[in-house]
């Protein structure tokens, strides 16, 4: 890749980084954030200052050894104790405040990304419009944390490297002195030659490291994706345990999970090979850096131009300068992971923004009931399901939607709810009203059974009413567990979950109730009992049902037949 090709890539990387990071640093927490950052930077500068003091101490300490100065040796040890204590205190609090900033930033960023994902039903629209954004849960739960942690680590590490370089390059320049040698009959004089040696040594190592480690960026990106895919497969087995067991599908699921894990293992082997190749070089180059300054400075030491303390001080200063210049070599694997995380979060942000920008029908406030004005509903591929649908329902009206599978019944409810982006036309709804949608597979929130009964409203405590309704629905055996917290979507059968959802409609008493085959798992008697109770609770509201059973017609005043290809018929 040429330099011209690299430059836009680097600019794009840092543009994405700032786009993700900026919201926190201008948020309501910005003063604490900048204050903590200033404190951490001060402590980091303090660590560099302590390293300068240690470098000066090396000269004194090793000179006392060379001069057999016992008194000076003791004094140097005492000085080392003071320096070490100060260094430890600064280092401990530098880490403490860095972690404090990290968890504050991560908490804010996690809430920010979660809100963007959940707001305006983007989590639903995202899965309709963008198949490339895989596992948004992992991007919020893991990538946000990695982004914050690595960003702070790299930025502060870079700052320390720059300050260390500025602090020690003058020391190394002064200590190393000039290098004089004859070349072609002329004397060559290179001032501060150890500085040039450190720069050349670091540049060679950095160039080779980038060349060897470039594939790590893509491999880290894919590793996170394969790990998330495998974890998603495991979660699906847990959530659908009963169905899989009834199908006796454990062997098939094991094969599917095995195929997903093959990708994890295969990509990890590729990562291992790349890391091994990179580690061969970085380990060799790092070990060579230990003796390289001694080899280069040895001629002046043996010529008695510098004492042992000076030699060791040069070695220490060279290590600090090279360590600062060696930042990319030492951090390349981290940099590769950082870029992969930024790419994933940037893709996620772009996808959420695209989902947010999709067209949506906002209901227009009307005096009463529900009104559809030339509403057309399509599939994502453009196939029209319902065309120019027009109707008006007033308080107390009930509507049954029927039709063949795929005719657009459930999609119509999604369009009315405002979550289906492929719809055009007008929807009017009475203002200051509440709507409740019950799907065929009811949603059972994490928490108590009481909370599930009143979801999404605040929990009610009229135990007498709850007991009567539970008895009517044939759920009296669950009353002792009313306040028990459990994974109810796994504990209860589908029929029991549908009964809970119908009781939810009776307790909440919404102004508009939309039921999408919400009684498909109930027997005829249970369906009749609960439908009658729901209809009675909705006598002042609008009730719309989707269903196939002939018996449902007696609970509705009107029937909408979805005939496919955009056609429909409204009958009493």
Outline of this structure?
This protein is an alpha/beta fold and 572 residues long.
Account of the 3D structure:
The chain contains 17 helices and 14 strands. With 572 residues, it is an alpha/beta fold. A 6-stranded mixed beta sheet has the order 8-11-12-6-13-14, sandwiched between helices. The protein has a 4-stranded mixed beta sheet with strand order 3-7-4-5, with helices on one face. Strands 1-2 form a two-stranded antiparallel ribbon. Strand 11, helix 17 and strand 12 form a beta-alpha-beta unit. The protein is elongated and about 110 Å long.
| Sheet/helix structural class | alpha/beta
Extract low-pLDDT stretches. Answer: 1-8
* Count of distinct strands: 14
* Gyration radius, rounded: 35 Å
The major pleated sheet works out as: 6 strands, mixed
Distance between the termini: 70 Å
Shape, per Cα inertia axes: elongated
Strand content: 5-15%
- The chain-level mean pLDDT equals 86
In spatial order, strands of the major sheet run 8-11-12-6-13-14
Number of helices: 17
State the helicity in percent bands.
55-70%
List keywords for this structure.
572 residues, alpha/beta, 65% helix, 13% strand, elongated, disordered N terminus
């Amino acid at each position: 890749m040429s330099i011209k090709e690299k430059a836009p890539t680097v600019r794009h990387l840092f543009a994405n980084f700032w786009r993700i990071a900026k919201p926190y640093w201008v948020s309501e927490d910005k003063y604490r954030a900048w204050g903590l950052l200033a404190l951490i930077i001060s402590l980091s500068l303090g660590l560099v200052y302590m390293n300068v003091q240690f470098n000066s101490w090396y000269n004194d300490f090793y000179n006392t050894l060379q001069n057999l100065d016992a008194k000076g040796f003791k004094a140097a040890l005492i000085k080392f104790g003071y320096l070490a204590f100060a260094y430890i205190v600064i280092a401990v609090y530098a880490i403490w405040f860095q972690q404090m900033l990290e968890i504050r930033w991560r908490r804010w960023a996690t809430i920010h990304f979660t809100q963007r994902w959940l707001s305006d039903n983007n989590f639903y629209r995202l899965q309709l419009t963008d198949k490339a954004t895989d596992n948004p849960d992992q991007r919020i739960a893991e990538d946000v944390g990695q982004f914050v942690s690595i960003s702070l680590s790299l930025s502060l590490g870079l700052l320390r490297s720059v300050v260390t370089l500025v602090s020690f390059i003058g020391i190394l320049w002064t200590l190393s002195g000039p290098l004089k040698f004859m070349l072609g009959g002329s004397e060559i004089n290179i001032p501060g030659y150890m500085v040039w040696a450190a720069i050349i040594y670091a540049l060679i190592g950095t160039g080779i490291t980038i060349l060897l480690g470039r594939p790590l960026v893509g491999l880290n990106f894919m590793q996170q994706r394969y790990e998330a895919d495998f974890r998603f497969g495991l979660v699906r087995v847990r959530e659908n345990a009963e169905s899989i067991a009834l199908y006796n599908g454990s062997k098939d699921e094991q094969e599917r999970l095995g195929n997903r894990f093959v990708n994890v293992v295969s990509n990890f082997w590729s990562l291992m090979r790349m890391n091994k190749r990179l580690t061969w070089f970085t380990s060799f180059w790092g070990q060579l850096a230990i003796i390289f300054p001694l080899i280069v400075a040895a001629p002046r030491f043996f010529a008695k131009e510098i004492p042992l303390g000076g030699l060791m001080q040069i070695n220490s200063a060279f290590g600090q300068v090279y360590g600062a210049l060696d930042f990319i070599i030492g951090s390349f694997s981290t940099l590769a992971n950082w870029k992969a995380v930024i790419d994933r979060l940037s893709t996620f942000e772009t996808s959420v923004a695209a989902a947010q920008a999709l067209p949506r029908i906002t209901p227009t406030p009307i005096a009463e009931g529900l009104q559809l004005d030339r509403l057309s509903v399509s599939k994502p591929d453009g196939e029209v399901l319902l065309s120019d649908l027009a109707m008006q329902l007033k308080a107390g009206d009930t509507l049954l939607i029927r039709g063949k599978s795929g005719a657009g019944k459930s999609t119509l409810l999604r369009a009315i709810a405002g979550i289906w982006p492929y719809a055009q036309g007008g929807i009017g709804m009475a203002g200051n009203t509440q709507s409740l949608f019950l799907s065929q597979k009811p949603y059972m929130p994490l928490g108590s059974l009481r909370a599930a009964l009143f979801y999404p409203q605040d929990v009610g405590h009229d135990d007498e009413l709850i007991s009567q309704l539970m008895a009517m629905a044939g759920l009296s055996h669950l009353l002792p567990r009313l306040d028990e917290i459990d994974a109810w979507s796994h504990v209860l059968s589908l029929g029991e979950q549908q009964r809970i959802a119908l009781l939810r409609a009776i307790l909440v008493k919404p102004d508009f109730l939309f039921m999408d085959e919400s009684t498909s798992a109930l027997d005829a008697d249970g369906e009749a009992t609960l439908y009658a109770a729901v209809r009675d609770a909705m006598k002042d509201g609008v009730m719309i049902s989707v269903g196939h059973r002939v018996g449902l017609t007696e609970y509705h005043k009107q029937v909408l037949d979805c005939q496919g290809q955009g056609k429909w018929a409204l009958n009493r």
